[in-house]
């Protein structure tokens, strides 16, 4: 019997062929699950040495992949360090180039007029690269950049959160009446981190991407933000079982940013009296670094008492443990989706936090507890349970994931890819990292030493990081460090020129 192939049958055969080819192509494209916390110091993961905190799910990621122990944020042009860090993250551009892309900054930055509109530079956003490559791009959680960037880079957005949430009881107070507005001062009213009546993270205001591709209006959810964002991430992963297209997920927790709120069961895990103060605890910072009066520093009394610092650190650990549980839910959903083996998982934070170190509470300072953060990566080809001490910038995750996915890195990206380092195939990190905070602080750091310069004070600090990892003893005037001091001053000038810092010239 002779088979006759009609034109309709031919079209059907061709369609099936290309469908199967498309499916096979998608199958080899890895997924990206990016999880970012807010204000998480580098020493807050149990598996990396902190025996005072419970983080079983972050420990899972440590065991499943490679941990970069010396990951840094390059600095900030604004008081809100989150804005700068996240703008560099989504643009891939360095600290003095990123703010030229004013369209991608948050509304606060717009109002402050960071730079003139005519100074904007063309840039390809991180999620935009994956979206144009056919990835389903998903976002939930804190953004802290303009919604223009959201609409441009993501195909699905659920519960996009604001940078910060108010904390109040009853009628919203004026900020001038509540100087510690995201955590009522203990001297003004009793504070219970587990009490939803204080709102904050317990009552987030969020919004979704609408069918027309535009962000909708804000609405309020009576649910802890960490649980809310994890819920949406889990839902997306559950629905991903039905799709062959690869995904790019951006899951962004507000935790452990203040107000450091979590359920009572988590707070109870960390009795205040048993919580250790940091080894570099001081009642007050030795001098005004330019950010002593900023909001973050007003969250604890002056001078800092050991009880206040223990209380803050206990709540800090509690909210990290609660977030860790939500991360575990996301990781479990990824496994159940059947896509875990073909997914790169990256966990990091936008910067660190002092929480009592050096007499400080915030991140607007040049010490390692504030400029460093965790950086964990796992996935196909990534060595398991490995630590890398090379110095890197957190924002290198953009070009790294591009290379791992076989996508071209846009020419607008400044930060280098960590692909070879992550895969254990050689490469090296930064010999010198640079950091800044507005016009008040500059730093360069090697693996062994750090030089800090305060331009307005004409003051320096020099720390021997091998002998003094907690940056307690200033060696700037020690003649034994003359050679190191000279080398680091030269390095600071060189980095200033390379990055386009027009503020200062080190004498």
CATH topology group of the largest domain: Alkaline Phosphatase, subunit A
> How can the largest sheet be summarized?
11 strands, mixed
**Strand segment count:** 16
The helix-and-strand class reads alpha/beta
CATH-defined architecture of the largest domain: 3-Layer(aba) Sandwich
**Fraction in helix:** 25-40%
CATH class of the largest domain: Alpha Beta
Give the ordered list of helices and strands.
HEHEEHHHEHEEEHEHHEHEEEHHEEEEH
What's the pLDDT, averaged over the residues? 88
- What is the radius of gyration? 24 Å
Proportion of beta-strand residues: 15-25%
The outline comes out as: globular
Which spans have pLDDT < 50 for at least 5 consecutive residues?
14-26, 107-119, 168-180
The tally of helices reads 13
